[in-house]
Specification:
The protein has 160 residues and is mostly beta strands. The chain has a single domain, classed as Immunoglobulin-like (Sandwich), CATH 2.60.40. Helices cover 12% and strands 48% of the residues. It is built from 1 helix and 9 strands; from the N terminus they run H-E-E-E-E-E-E-E-E-E.
Length: 160
């Protein structure tokens, strides 16, 4: 006859301890915030583009960098952010295009907007105004991403 010191068997107690440790680690890594909002951003190289490097910031934090060229004409990023109703976004980067004369031109991207309840959405990175204005849009739900047209200072890097 073996003595039992608790009402739980060892395998159950071990699994419960593992789960508690995992939960404590996840809470510490996320500073206690819930990472419930997850969405996708897709970017593709246009015909005139030679290359593109774009960075996506959500609420001022870099969440994705996408580099496109002849070998990699498309990218897809899964974005996980703390759950809340809306977020600011900024698209920053450089796009090299080939103009009508065959010469390359570099366009700096500095655009911003707001995402409303983006969880579960798939956003496309779109360009306008001859590759000078970029924004996110979910074609199936256009009001989810609001864009502030024109070049913004969201991507300005301070130098000293």
């Amino acid at each position: 006859m073996t003595a039992r010191t608790s009402g739980f068997s060892r395998p159950y107690a071990y699994n419960a301890l593992k789960a508690a440790c995992l939960l404590a680690t996840m809470t510490a890594l996320t500073n206690g915030s819930a990472w419930a909002a997850q969405f996708i951003v897709e970017d593709g190289k246009a015909t005139q583009e030679v290359s593109e490097t774009s960075r996506l910031y959500i609420d001022g934090d870099l969440v994705a960098t996408m580099v496109l060229d002849e070998k990699t004409p498309q990218r897809r990023a899964v974005i996980s952010v703390p759950d809340k109703p809306s977020y600011t976004y900024a698209l920053c980067g450089e796009i090299v295009v080939r103009n009508a004369e065959g010469k390359t031109e570099t366009h700096l991207v500095s655009s911003q907007g707001t995402l409303h309840d983006p969880s579960g959405h798939v956003f496309q990175a779109m360009g306008a105004d001859n590759f000078t204005d970029f924004y996110l849009i979910d074609p199936s739900s256009p009001s989810t991403a609001l864009h502030e047209p024109g070049r913004k200072g969201a991507c300005t890097v301070a130098t000293s």
